[in-house]
Write a structure and sequence with these properties.
With 151 residues, this protein is an alpha/beta fold. It has helices at 4-23, 47-50, 57-69, 87-96, 113-117, 138-150; strands spanning 30-35, 38-44, 77-83, 100-105, 127-130.
Length: 151
Amino acid sequence: MLEEAILRNALSIAYAEAELAFHENEVPVGAVIVHNNEVIARDHNRIVQFSNALRHAELNVIEKAAQLIKNERLTECHLVTTLEPCMMCSGAVVLSRIASVHFLADEERSPGLRSLLALPEINHKPQLYRHRSDEWDSASLLRRFFQMRRS
Protein backbone atom coordinates (compact mmCIF):
# COMPACT_ATOMS: atom_id res chain seq x y z
CA MET A 1 0.00 0.00 0.00
CA LEU A 2 1.11 3.55 -0.67
CA GLU A 3 2.15 5.83 2.17
CA GLU A 4 -0.57 8.32 3.10
CA ALA A 5 1.33 11.44 1.97
CA ILE A 6 2.26 9.88 -1.36
CA LEU A 7 -1.30 8.65 -1.91
CA ARG A 8 -2.76 12.11 -1.13
CA ASN A 9 -0.34 13.73 -3.58
CA ALA A 10 -1.19 11.18 -6.28
CA LEU A 11 -4.95 11.63 -5.72
CA SER A 12 -4.53 15.39 -5.94
CA ILE A 13 -2.60 15.14 -9.23
CA ALA A 14 -5.10 12.65 -10.69
CA TYR A 15 -7.98 14.97 -9.78
CA ALA A 16 -6.17 17.95 -11.33
CA GLU A 17 -5.82 15.90 -14.53
CA ALA A 18 -9.57 15.12 -14.42
CA GLU A 19 -10.29 18.85 -14.14
CA LEU A 20 -8.08 19.48 -17.20
CA ALA A 21 -10.10 16.87 -19.09
CA PHE A 22 -13.33 18.57 -17.99
CA HIS A 23 -12.13 21.90 -19.42
CA GLU A 24 -11.05 20.19 -22.66
CA ASN A 25 -14.54 18.68 -23.11
CA GLU A 26 -13.23 15.19 -22.36
CA VAL A 27 -14.91 12.87 -19.87
CA PRO A 28 -13.20 14.07 -16.67
CA VAL A 29 -10.99 11.18 -15.67
CA GLY A 30 -7.39 11.60 -14.56
CA ALA A 31 -4.78 9.03 -13.62
CA VAL A 32 -1.22 8.71 -12.38
CA ILE A 33 1.30 5.94 -11.92
CA VAL A 34 3.41 5.87 -8.77
CA HIS A 35 6.73 3.99 -8.83
CA ASN A 36 9.26 4.03 -5.98
CA ASN A 37 7.11 6.57 -4.12
CA GLU A 38 7.21 9.02 -7.04
CA VAL A 39 4.59 9.96 -9.62
CA ILE A 40 6.22 8.95 -12.91
CA ALA A 41 3.27 9.37 -15.27
CA ARG A 42 0.18 11.55 -15.26
CA ASP A 43 -2.53 12.15 -17.84
CA HIS A 44 -6.25 12.43 -18.47
CA ASN A 45 -8.74 11.20 -21.05
CA ARG A 46 -7.81 12.33 -24.56
CA ILE A 47 -10.48 10.50 -26.56
CA VAL A 48 -11.86 13.61 -28.27
CA GLN A 49 -8.44 15.16 -28.80
CA PHE A 50 -7.12 12.10 -30.66
CA SER A 51 -10.46 10.82 -32.04
CA ASN A 52 -9.54 7.51 -30.46
CA ALA A 53 -11.73 5.59 -28.02
CA LEU A 54 -8.62 3.92 -26.58
CA ARG A 55 -7.13 7.14 -25.16
CA HIS A 56 -8.40 6.61 -21.62
CA ALA A 57 -6.39 8.22 -18.83
CA GLU A 58 -5.40 4.85 -17.38
CA LEU A 59 -4.11 3.49 -20.69
CA ASN A 60 -2.20 6.71 -21.29
CA VAL A 61 -0.33 6.50 -17.98
CA ILE A 62 0.28 2.75 -18.23
CA GLU A 63 1.90 3.31 -21.62
CA LYS A 64 4.00 6.23 -20.36
CA ALA A 65 5.16 4.31 -17.27
CA ALA A 66 6.13 1.22 -19.28
CA GLN A 67 8.19 3.39 -21.62
CA LEU A 68 9.85 5.19 -18.70
CA ILE A 69 10.87 2.09 -16.78
CA LYS A 70 11.46 0.17 -20.02
CA ASN A 71 9.38 -2.80 -18.97
CA GLU A 72 5.86 -3.91 -19.86
CA ARG A 73 5.53 -5.44 -16.38
CA LEU A 74 4.66 -2.71 -13.89
CA THR A 75 4.85 -4.97 -10.84
CA GLU A 76 6.20 -2.22 -8.58
CA CYS A 77 3.77 0.42 -9.83
CA HIS A 78 0.51 1.72 -8.42
CA LEU A 79 -2.31 3.20 -10.50
CA VAL A 80 -4.21 6.10 -8.93
CA THR A 81 -7.28 7.21 -10.85
CA THR A 82 -10.39 9.29 -10.36
CA LEU A 83 -12.75 6.58 -11.63
CA GLU A 84 -12.76 2.82 -11.22
CA PRO A 85 -11.13 1.50 -14.41
CA CYS A 86 -13.48 0.28 -17.14
CA MET A 87 -13.16 -3.26 -18.50
CA MET A 88 -10.73 -2.18 -21.23
CA CYS A 89 -8.44 -0.40 -18.77
CA SER A 90 -8.88 -3.23 -16.27
CA GLY A 91 -7.49 -5.64 -18.84
CA ALA A 92 -4.44 -3.42 -19.20
CA VAL A 93 -4.04 -3.29 -15.40
CA VAL A 94 -4.06 -7.09 -15.20
CA LEU A 95 -1.79 -7.61 -18.22
CA SER A 96 0.75 -5.05 -17.00
CA ARG A 97 0.75 -6.61 -13.51
CA ILE A 98 0.18 -3.33 -11.66
CA ALA A 99 0.55 -3.89 -7.90
CA SER A 100 -2.42 -1.82 -6.73
CA VAL A 101 -5.21 0.40 -7.99
CA HIS A 102 -6.59 3.34 -6.01
CA PHE A 103 -9.72 5.10 -7.26
CA LEU A 104 -12.13 7.82 -6.15
CA ALA A 105 -15.46 7.13 -7.91
CA ASP A 106 -17.23 3.86 -8.63
CA GLU A 107 -17.87 2.85 -12.23
CA GLU A 108 -21.66 2.66 -12.08
CA ARG A 109 -22.66 2.34 -15.74
CA SER A 110 -20.69 -0.69 -16.86
CA PRO A 111 -18.61 -3.48 -15.37
CA GLY A 112 -15.30 -2.24 -14.06
CA LEU A 113 -12.23 -3.58 -12.35
CA ARG A 114 -14.16 -5.06 -9.42
CA SER A 115 -16.17 -7.18 -11.88
CA LEU A 116 -13.04 -8.44 -13.64
CA LEU A 117 -11.28 -9.27 -10.39
CA ALA A 118 -14.28 -11.32 -9.26
CA LEU A 119 -13.54 -13.86 -12.01
CA PRO A 120 -11.64 -16.83 -10.56
CA GLU A 121 -9.53 -17.38 -13.70
CA ILE A 122 -7.72 -14.03 -13.57
CA ASN A 123 -3.99 -14.73 -13.18
CA HIS A 124 -3.09 -11.37 -11.61
CA LYS A 125 -5.22 -9.55 -9.09
CA PRO A 126 -3.91 -6.15 -7.99
CA GLN A 127 -4.82 -4.79 -4.60
CA LEU A 128 -7.87 -2.58 -5.01
CA TYR A 129 -8.67 0.47 -2.88
CA ARG A 130 -11.72 2.73 -3.10
CA HIS A 131 -11.07 6.15 -1.53
CA ARG A 132 -13.77 8.59 -0.43
CA SER A 133 -12.88 12.25 -0.33
CA ASP A 134 -14.75 15.52 0.07
CA GLU A 135 -11.64 17.23 -1.24
CA TRP A 136 -11.64 15.41 -4.58
CA ASP A 137 -15.24 14.64 -5.46
CA SER A 138 -14.73 12.85 -8.73
CA ALA A 139 -18.31 11.55 -8.89
CA SER A 140 -19.64 15.12 -8.68
CA LEU A 141 -17.25 16.28 -11.41
CA LEU A 142 -18.47 13.48 -13.67
CA ARG A 143 -22.14 14.33 -12.95
CA ARG A 144 -21.54 18.02 -13.76
CA PHE A 145 -19.83 17.07 -17.02
CA PHE A 146 -22.67 14.85 -18.22
CA GLN A 147 -25.34 17.36 -17.12
CA MET A 148 -23.58 20.02 -19.21
CA ARG A 149 -23.48 17.70 -22.21
CA ARG A 150 -27.20 16.94 -21.93
CA SER A 151 -28.24 20.59 -21.75
